[in-house]
Amino acid sequence: MPRDTVPTILHYKDSAFTVYSLEEYNQLPDSLKGSVEQQNYVDSVYNALQYINAPKVSAEEDSSGEWGFSIVIMVVFSIIAFNIYRLIRQLIKEQNSPVNAASIDADENDEVEPEPTVRYLIYKGSELKFTDEELHTVCRKYNPYYQKLNADKQPAFIERVQEFIHSKDFYICSAKGYKEMPILISASAVQITFGLKDFLLPHFSNIIIHPEEYFAYDPFRILVGNVQGHSISLSWKHFLQDYQNPTDGKNVGLHEMAHALQVQYLFRNPKRSNTFKEDFEHYDRIDDDVLNAEKTNDRRMFDENALRNKNEFWATSVELFFEKPVELKTQYPDLYESLRIVLNQDTAAM
Questions:
Q1: Structure pTM?
Q2: In this structure, what is the dihedral angle of CA atoms 56, 61, 63, 67, given to the nearest 10 degrees?
Q3: What backbone torsions phi and psi does residue 135 show, to the nearest 5 degrees?
Q4: Around Cβ 18, how many Cβ atoms within 10 Å?
Q5: Residues 141, 238, 178: CA angle, nearest 5 degrees
Q6: CA–CA dist 151, 138 (Å, integer)
Q7: Which of 108, 216, 347, 349 could be a cystine partner for 325, CB 3.0 to 4.6 Å?
């Protein structure tokens, strides 16, 4: 069998997923394979690898193939060398970034002059000690979903938030951090997975928190949230604003956690069967119909970005499921039902 286990990154607007073989890519749901151009790109990468690993003919049989083979070898090794260079550059950058371990419990009203050398703060979730009462107070104040939960379900929600915090490392790209940051971002992950048995998203060990919009590279763009590698990144400004307006259908926290769910259950070990993957097929069967209907709808529920990109369409569908559940159920009942099955929640009934 050809040795095709070379990482290939699938880039979307605010997420980047990695596949390691053509077989793994082909097993993804259709809604995750991206545009025709992206599919052609993946095919070309692994076809080149198959060519490299194919039995070679003798010089007498085909001397003209030597130049083509050499070119393919050069291209593949150039890609590998470039990725190694990027990794080394990132490691050097991280090693040279000074860290200031300021207290995450600092009062927001404190006048603290930021130190010019601070790049980011690091807090290991396993070392953060929040009481259940602290989590309850913060979630009750800022998270509308938690406010709607029945009192008998709130302790289970808080217990999951504790576990999620303890399983992550939090990187705050600022001179100062607040306890609401790890609590509320963890709560957004628990919110979207509250109906699922597995909720820790173990593939993601890092939560990166930016004060506001930030630059992302490969490709270069300005983002308010994204999922890539083992990290979930968010703009704290936009995260808070979206939770303060819980009915406009926009929530960057839920949006990025929806991408993280895809990575965890569909991109990681795609050959392995899991309940989420099986349930996702309900959504995958109808997303094209809804997407096409939205393109001709005068009163759209989905924004332009969601309509251009099927991967973004999924994340936006999740946002609407939590922020406009009744409207989504009324306009697209099949889509709502598929999300209800995938997430094992009935938000319209809350």
A1: 0.74
A2: -30
A3: -65, -45
A4: 14
A5: 55
A6: 15
A7: 347
CA distances from 118 to 91, 99, 223, 256, 258 (A): 17, 6, 22, 26, 31
Which residues does residue 228 pair with via DSSP β-bridges, in sequence order? 16, 231
Alpha carbons 301 and 249: distance in angstroms, whole number: 8
Query: CA of 21: how far to CAs of 25, 79, 140, 193, 284, in Å?
Result: 6, 16, 45, 28, 22
Identify which of 208, 211, 179, 164 has the alpha carbon closest to the alpha carbon of residue 14: 208
The conformation of residue 120, written as its DSSP 8-state character, comes to: B
Spatial distance between the Cα atoms of 160 and 238, rounded to a whole number of angstroms: 24
DSSP symbols for 77-116: HHHHHHHHHHHHHHHHHHHTS-B----TT--TT---PPPT
How crowded is the C-beta side of 131, counted as CA atoms within 13 Å?
Answer: 3
SS3 184: helix
Structure tokens at 263: 């990575």
User: Residue 180 and residue 183: Cα distance in Å, rounded?
Assistant: 5
Work out the number of other CB atoms within 10 angstroms of the CB of residue 324: 20
Q: Per residue in 313-343, pLDDT tens?
A: 999 999 999 999 999 999 999 999 999 999 9
Of the candidates 186, 189, 66, 192, the one whose C-alpha atom is nearest the C-alpha of residue 138 is 186
